[in-house]
């Protein structure tokens, strides 16, 4: 049986700058095809973690392995691609010329540029100058550069900051395709709502410590926040709904109640008993923003 090498393993990773412990015993793995989002406030240690994985700075404690090899080794570098937060390209070059240049630097035939650019959806803009590209298109050139050599691990530093919603969606679709082909993806983001839907695992860093990691479902359970039930009250049904739920907040035809996850079904049963007094019901689980705030706050306490 052949076992696939884990693209990224961090065990008990610790990094200190003079006065600051930027990372404290961080343990995290990214498997082939897995999309992991690293979340954290400014200064949480996200960039430090990425720089260590890329072999750009040393660490003080613990172990890091990229495809089983030390970061910065030839094997690790060959397997890893990096997309920095802001990528600067030469505005006078065309997309094709820019990627051909990177291909040559990596010792690969420049003729592959068109194929790579087609993979990121830039087939129609190959021979236009990058200076005329939109921000989303430039971000795609950055990703095209990162795809050279079919990396096993993609490290993306806030890849969607400054992109509009459509460009973001397209960008995540591309990442899904790469993950489906087996690439491991580690990205940092401040945009919580988008990583909620588009990643497999969320890791929350707070002042250098990994305070939570798991799927959004795991994190929801851990944060143990109430969910919101929104009742649309039927014509004339308000007195009955008020009597049944004295704690509800009313606004127009809507009534909101908050219930612990564990009481959800019981509460829905009680709403059903109100029969025709209720026109509709919607359930809203706590958002990733709520969970993130709750977990970081708990850690700071
Ligand atoms: N070269 C350095 N020398 C000293 N301290 C540093 C250095 N680089 C980072 N730090 C400190 O380490 C901590 C982690 O910084 P890091 O840049 O990794 O955070 P981050 O999560 O990437 O933040 P941001 O979201 O703002 O980019 C911060 O307290 C920062 O001030």
Automatic annotation (TrEMBL):
InterPro entries on file: AAA+_ATPase (IPR003593), ABC_transporter-like_ATP-bd (IPR003439), ABC_transporter-like_CS (IPR017871), P-loop_NTPase (IPR027417)
Protein name: Cu-processing system ATP-binding protein
SUPFAM superfamilies: P-loop containing nucleoside triphosphate hydrolases
Highest taxon of source: Bacteria
Keyword set, alphabetical order: ATP-binding, Nucleotide-binding, Transport
GO molecular function: ATP binding; ATP hydrolysis activity
Source species taxonomy: Bacteria, Pseudomonadati, Pseudomonadota, Alphaproteobacteria, Rhodobacterales
ABC transporter domain segment(s): 8-232
Pfam families registered for this protein in UniProt: ABC_tran
